[in-house]
Amino acid sequence: MDEKYETRKIQFTGKSSYIISLPKKWIDELGLTRGDQIRISKKGSTNLMLTPPDVQPKTAQFDTATVEIGANDSADTVARRLISLYFLGFKTINVRPKSGRLKPSQRLHIKETVRRMLMGSEIISDSSEMITVQVLINLLELTVEGAFKRMVHLAKSVSRDALLAVQENNKELAAEVANMDDEIDRFGFYIIRQLKLAIQNDHVLREMGFQSARSCLGYRVLVKNIERAGDHAVLIAKDVLEFDKRIDEDAIVTLQDMNAFALSVLDDACLALFKDDYAQAEATIAKASRISEYDDRLQGITGNIWDNEIVFRIRRMADNIRRISEYSVDIAEIVLNLNIEKTLKERS
Q1: Going by C-beta distance under 8 Å and a sequence separation of 6 or more, which residues neighbour residue 263?
Q2: From CA 276, how far away is CA 215, in angstroms rounded?
Q3: Measured in whole angstroms, how far is the alpha carbon of residue 58 from the centre of its chain?
Q4: Residue 124, φ and ψ in degrees, nearest 5
Q5: Euclidean distance between CA atoms 76 and 98, whole angstroms
Q6: Beta pairing partners, 126
Q7: What span, in angstroms and rounded, lies between the C-alpha atoms of 314 and 301?
Q8: How far is 307 from 310, CA to CA, in rounded Å?
Q9: pLDDT tens digits, 210-220
Q10: Residue 158 in contact with residue 182, Cβ under 8 Å?
Q11: What is the pLDDT of residues 136-147, one digit of tens each?
């Protein structure tokens, strides 16, 4: 039998009430117990809906996971395993060696991964035999929308700082921008974890403000786009770290103008997202096409520069900025996809 559907007989009790039984599995999964209140509502002319109000359901199939690592496992391998279990929604993650003891370098990297990448997580036990990671953050303390807004803010900040580092040839600022990539990813990992939990439980889905699992899939792509926008800002910063020559001042001014325009496109796309505004999304896509105007300006500038290395770097930075605008268009297209049905109903 399909797990989502069960057949129950309606029984008569007293003088004016009917009762039905509910599957024990469903009650356990929702974290309900005897005496809890259930809200009953009529949906249309043929459906009844039962909703448990003010009850925090169990959101993951498992509370605890244990992963074993070998003596020769690389730091990246260990980090990927921790992140994967974090994504799956485990509340407690134990890391222990397959044999012997955890190396000091492995313990250090596990702690660094938890600190830099797993939002809301703390190490509650640390020894050479096992490290225990506890995810402490509550589902609703930081909403998906709130975390996404923070991601966007960070991505915009590092993008502006990257261009400032280019202007000043400031290697210290460039290094700081490069290090901020982990902070953006940290919010992204948190959002992905929340989305997975929401997809697993309809109650959590509604508590997070999503109408359907389809919206979660859209947000998953949104997160990836913001992560990539941050990555391109980091690539611009790394250019400052790798080369000592200064970029032509006219080129820098144009690149900063181009970057400001790309970030304005990102702002417009996110505004369309948060407002569920189909028309705003369409306008954002149309606006993004104007970024080619900055390519024309740069072409005129680079034509007068004889140093091929400088020309190559300018073009590479311009390409990184252009990609930020393209990711903003992707966000706007997701808004179109999520809101097309509502728009059709409004126009019919």
Answers
A1: 156, 159, 160, 324
A2: 11
A3: 22
A4: -105, -10
A5: 17
A6: 131
A7: 10
A8: 5
A9: 766 777 777 88
A10: no
A11: 765 556 788 888
